[in-house]
Design goal:
This protein is of the alpha/beta class. The protein has a seven-stranded mixed beta sheet, sandwiched between helices. Helix 2 crosses helix 3. It is elongated and about 65 Å long. 42% of the residues are buried. Belongs to the class I-like SAM-binding methyltransferase superfamily. rRNA adenine N(6)-methyltransferase family. RsmA subfamily. It comes from Sphingobium tyrosinilyticum. Keywords: Cytoplasm, Methyltransferase, RNA-binding, rRNA processing, S-adenosyl-L-methionine, Transferase. It is found in: Cytoplasm.
C-alpha cells in the first residue's frame, strides 16, 4: 500500500477516549501514542510490504496501524475484549490486511495463524514478554525457524539481558538462549514518557534475526546447562554444574577451567559444552 492510499485515521487519543480504553495494569498495558515513533518501530524489520506479520497485544491499535501502513498482512492477538471494536475499525480501514484473534497469545499457535516467514512485531505486555520470547526462540529450527524476525518492545533491563555479552551484570541465561542461533541487538531506546500511562522504567526495542543453528546441538541440553550454570552464577562451574550428568567431563573435553564462573563463559563455549553433553 503506497502512502497515497493510506486511509485517514483519527488520532489515537481520540480512539482511546471513544472506546473508553484506559490501560489495564493487570494486563501489563502501556499504550504508545506517538505515530512517528510507531512508524519507526514498524520500519525496523525492513520492508513489510505484502509480508506476513504477527502482533501480540495491539491494544487500541497504535503499532497495528503503523504495521498496516507499512503494507504488511497482519494477524494480531488481543485478549482485552474492550479493544476489539477499535481494532475492527482498523480492519475496515485496511481491507484484507488485518485479522484479529480474540484470545491469549500464550495459548495461540502463532506459526499456524501467521504463516511461515512472518515478522513478529509487538509492544509486548510486560507480564508475559519474556515467556513469549523464549517460546519463539524454542520453536522448531530446520535450520532456520518459521519467523523472519522479532521486533519486540521490552523493559530496558530485559532488553539488556537479551543482548548482553560475557563478563557483564546483565549476561545470563536469556542472553545465551537469544544469541546461540540468532543475532540480537537493541534497535531503539524508548523513553518512559512516550507511553500512556508512563511506566516506571525505560524501554527498548530489540531486533532479533535467526541464523542457522549450530550442528549437533540440542536446545534441551543448552537449557539444562544454562539453568544449572546461572542458577548459582556466583559459584565456580565445578560447583554449579556438578549435578548435571556429563557436565564436568564436558568442561574438561572443551578445555574450560572449572574454576571459572558462568558469566565468563561465552555463548560459543556454552554451545560447545551442550554439543559434548549431547553426544
Amino acid at each position: 500500500m503506497g502512502t497515497e492510499a493510506r486511509p485517514i485515521l483519527p488520532p489515537l487519543r481520540e480512539v482511546i477516549a471513544a472506546h473508553g480504553l484506559q490501560a489495564s495494569k493487570a494486563l501489563g498495558q502501556n499504550f504508545l501514542l506517538d505515530e512517528q515513533l510507531l512508524d519507526r518501530i514498524a520500519a525496523i524489520p525492513g520492508s513489510l510490504k505484502d509480508q506476513p506479520a504477527f502482533e501480540v497485544g495491539p491494544g487500541p491499535g497504535g503499532l497495528t496501524r503503523a504495521i498496516l501502513r507499512a503494507g504488511a498482512r497482519l494477524v494480531a492477538v488481543e485478549r482485552d475484549n474492550r479493544c476489539l471494536p477499535a481494532l475492527a475499525e482498523l480492519s475496515d480501514a485496511f481491507p484484507g490486511q488485518l485479522r484479529v484473534i480474540s484470545g491469549d497469545a500464550m495459548q495461540v499457535d502463532a506459526r499456524a495463524e501467521a504463516g511461515e516467514k512472518a515478522h513478529i512485531i509487538a509492544n509486548l505486555p510486560y507480564n508475559v514478554g519474556t515467556a513469549l520470547l523464549i517460546g519463539w526462540l524454542s520453536a522448531d529450527w530446520e535450520p532456520l525457524t518459521w519467523w523472519s524476525s522479532l521486533t519486540l518492545m521490552f523493559q530496558m533491563e530485559v532488553a539488556e539481558r537479551i543482548v548482553a555479552k560475557p563478563n557483564g551484570d546483565h549476561y545470563g541465561r536469556l542472553a545465551v538462549l537469544s544469541q546461540w542461533r540468532s543475532d540480537a541487538r537493541i534497535a531503539m531506546k524508548v523513553h518512559r514518557s512516550a507511553f500512556t500511562p508512563p511506566p516506571k522504567v525505560m524501554s527498548a526495542v530489540v531486533h532479533i534475526t535467526p541464523k542457522p543453528a549450530p550442528e549437533a546441538v540440542q536446545l534441551k541440553h543448552l537449557e539444562r546447562l544454562t539453568a544449572a550454570a546461572f542458577g548459582q552464577r556466583r559459584k565456580m562451574l565445578r560447583q554449579s554444574l556438578k549435578g548435571l550428568p556429563g557436565a564436568l567431563e564436558a568442561l574438561e573435553t572443551v578445555g574450560i577451567d572449572p574454576q571459572r564462573r558462568a558469566e565468563t563463559v561465552s555463548v560459543e563455549e556454552f554451545v560447545e559444552l551442550a554439543r559434548v553433553i549431547g553426544r
